[in-house]
């Protein structure tokens, strides 16, 4: 199988896994009175994709996952909020990975990604309802982003550790 076809297979697997995690996450009740609060399970795949495929292809993974999950499990506004959060999160994590030269752990990168995701969603919500008072809501979401980002970072780190023992990504560089 040539490198482009193999890359497409891996890309498709990442989109599928992120979509499955989106569905699983939609089934998990969050026992908090904060609307929109989630664990961020699909971000595990975003991090692994970013580390293995790089940001351009991970951008495709994020967009495809948000659109498909929105059409299947949400609606128009959920797509807009998720896309804003997902894109800002990807942008921040990519910048940290690019400029950190491996100085930051995957857990820290994940926490910053979770905070950025919440910030992106709150910015869009502030625009939609035309008030900046939602930025106070962001403080609560930021506090939640720390443990959820920690969990996602640990999970992504362990998944990467296991994936490095395989040869699945060897063909991507050919």
From TrEMBL:
InterPro entries documented for this protein: Hpre_diP_synt_I, Hpre_diP_synth_I
Domain of life: Bacteria
Pfam families, per database record: Hpre_diP_synt_I (PF07456)
Record field: transmembrane: 6-24, 44-73, 79-99, 106-128, 134-156
Coiled coil: none
Keyword list, A-Z: Membrane, Transmembrane, Transmembrane helix
Annotated protein name in UniProt: Trans-hexaprenyltranstransferase
């Amino acid at each position: 199988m040539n490198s482009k076809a193999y890359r497409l297979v891996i890309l498709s697997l990442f989109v599928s896994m992120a979509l499955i995690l989106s569905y699983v996450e939609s089934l998990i009740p969050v026992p908090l009175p904060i609307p929109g609060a989630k664990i961020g399970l699909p971000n595990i795949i975003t991090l692994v994709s970013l580390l293995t495929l790089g940001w351009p292809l991970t951008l495709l993974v994020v967009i495809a996952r948000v659109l498909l999950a929105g059409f299947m499990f949400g609606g128009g506004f959920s797509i807009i909020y998720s896309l804003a959060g997902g894109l800002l999160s990807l942008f921040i994590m990519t910048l940290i990975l690019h400029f950190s030269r491996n100085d930051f752990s995957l857990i820290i990168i994940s926490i910053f990604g979770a905070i950025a995701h919440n910030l992106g969603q709150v910015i869009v919500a502030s625009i939609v309802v035309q008030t900046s008072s939602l930025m106070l809501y962001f403080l609560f979401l930021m506090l939640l982003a720390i443990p959820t980002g920690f969990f996602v970072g640990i999970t992504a780190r362990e998944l990467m550790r296991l994936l490095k023992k395989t040869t699945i990504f060897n063909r991507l560089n050919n």
